[in-house]
Records
---
Amino acid sequence: MFLHVAPPNPLSRQYSRQVNAWVFPLFEQNWRLFAPDPESVNRQISARTLHTAPDGTVHVIGWFDLSGVDNSAVRHDVFPSHTAQNTLRRAWSSYLETHGGDDRPRSERALMMQKYLTDIAADRITGHRGGTFESASCG
């Protein structure tokens, strides 16, 4: 461990491969052990739902502030979980990475991230609004 945490020196450089092979699987250090990654961008992630009535008319329900609900839950929890703070944020970041500027999926992973984000939105909206709907979209 000393060679891993010590400032770079000839000995740590010589044995870096062996040290890293032992340290990283077992003792990788990052601040997430103590606190989640801090928000570097203030994003508002919202979703809306679509419901088709029996007569065939389509009703689009107004936007629901997913990030506002998440932020409020974290603020009012003395010990918020890492998961509660990062699920939506990381899903959104992964969605943006896999869809590019034109909002089109470019791979199977992109489709998976789209489904994952939609499932998170549907779960959160159902938990707060209730009711039924056929689809949800985020923005």
Note: Helices lie at 2-5, 10-14, 16-27, 66-75, 82-99, 108-129.
---
Amino acid sequence: MRTILALSLLLFLHPCFAAITVVTENFPNFQYLDENGVLTGTVVDKVKSGLAKSGVEYEISVNTWSISYNAALRDSSTCIFSMARLPAREDKFSWVAQIGGFSASFYSFKSDQVKIANLDEAKKYRIAVLKNNYSHIYLKDNGFDERNQLILLDSFDNIYDVLKSRRSSIDLVILSDEQFKHERDGDKTLEDLKPILKLPVGTPQLYFACNKNINPSILEKLIKGFADND
């Protein structure tokens, strides 16, 4: 009984300073934890500046993409970056601001043997892709089967681990071109991984977005704060 009372008092007294939680993933060079555990990357200053100008109190949490995506999908006080804006996601989130753009390609260690000229030809191969990210949704929308063609992984770290340890089980992987260049510069075991076909989608845009049920007054402040960045 005394333990229950102590826990209840602790919960009651614990202050909640953050109006929102901002979730993200390690996605070099856009945002990632450096060797000192500091969040850095090409969009981080823009995001922090927009949040500061909004006046909304926040805390940032870095997780795998699946954890971050599901948190933003389910929790009304959670926002996320960097997320591609897709028709399948349009009504699921409140889109605050565009913060960048990226390109992605099919990569293979077997570039001499694997040749693809279009998406239909890629359907002959086993493809590793990050669960719930842009490429996963794009391939599903274009007829790729999650049971036979797509190997779904929870984080980019898992993708690289599988590529190194189980090359024979994967024919292709889809990666952000900028992210791959960053990883390859720090890991020479990836030098044999080559892009063989760019996803035919132009330059998808990355956004800062929030749960669709976020408090309207907070959303208004966020939109204004990020607009003042421009």
Note: The CA atoms of residues 126 and 149 lie 5 Å apart.
---
Amino acid sequence: MAPTDIIDTLAGIEPGSALDAIRAKRLQARENAQKSYLSLFEPIDAGEFSLLERAAVAAFVTGLHGESPVATFYRDKLAASAGGAVLLETIDAEIARGKTSGPYGSFPAGPLSVENTAGLIYRASAASKPVLGVRLVAAFEHAHLLVFRPRDAASSDMKALLAAVWSPTGIVTFSQLVAFLSFQVRVVCGLRTLAGVNA
């Protein structure tokens, strides 16, 4: 039996529904999104980016996007992970600390500079650091950068992850996970909006 499609589940898509038919027209995209979810959150070998860390990053990133079935799903996933429940309160506090709107940041000097926009530069609170540990602190700060200030990303940001004992392979997987979550939030939001329009 094939695993339940996570986007269908989060968007509330029933088999045989109009939205199911719409998604069936983009079967390869549907299958690839599911494969991405499974490889990122149910890998055969999590390597040095543990399942707990993946769930924690997912809860933080989707929480930054606002209340949604996706944020609830990953918060529940973290709560069900070994050692995850003790992180929930701290992550909730960091989501509140990091809430903002974007994207914003600065372009290199040139014609696009007129679009430069200042915004929050998120840093984890001193109170949260002992609970999260150096790896998750660095991950959260970098994830916030990727979500809200992608144009500001620089090599020094990668160095901060490396200094927090993230390997190059771990950084690649982490970046893929953050990108996937942003994609998933938008797709689910769009599908649920369509469902409301067609109701």
Note: The mean pLDDT is 91.
---
Amino acid sequence: MSWTAAGPKATVTPVEMMRAQIEETVAEYGAASARARRAGFDGVEVAANGTFLIAQFLNPRLNRRADAYGTDRGQLLLEVVDAVTAAWDGRRAGVRLSPYWTVDDTSPRARRAGYPYTADEATLAAYDALVAELATRPLAYLHLRGRAVAGPGAVPDFEEFARYRKLFDGALVANHGFGRVSGNAVVEAGIADAVSFGRPFIANPDLVARFALGHAVARGDESTHYGGGARGYVDYPIWAGC
């Protein structure tokens, strides 16, 4: 089992956290990690991606603090990582980052509102320094989400992951837009140690078997996502030969 510590999502009107609130939040991450271990989990993952709290601190367009958490936007994540890893013996905690998260990863409504995430060179350079620092921590792996692919059949840009492969010598997991062929290719190239799949599992509860047997992968109905019901989540058929 594994557990992802994502933290609070973005609010409509962000309010700067007080130092005491930050310290309390870091302690909560550590406590949650310890509880996960006592509950029998194999490890935990700290989610610093998307619109969650830590990702907000990493974003130069959202984090305009004048204190240490603003001058070093990665400080909160590093403190959380230290608190989470302290609860385990060995490398049992991973970190998920989305340095390439942009307006293309959001809903049409967020795009119209002027979504403030842009994977420009300054942002990516800041992630370079952060990943290098994470490499000094006792992490089980670094989980990287790549840029949104252009459309069906498009292949992720391996160089997006190779950039951080050079900075992190631990296990690296690549994510976003991969299929069986591209997933095998990025591992065989030595750029990633593994590939994670999220959305394909919705329409393919037998995804692993389909990959192993070379069967076609079904496409999901995105209009049913986040609908709150069972349709489009648990009603996809399993391939007859699996």
Note: The mean pLDDT is 88.
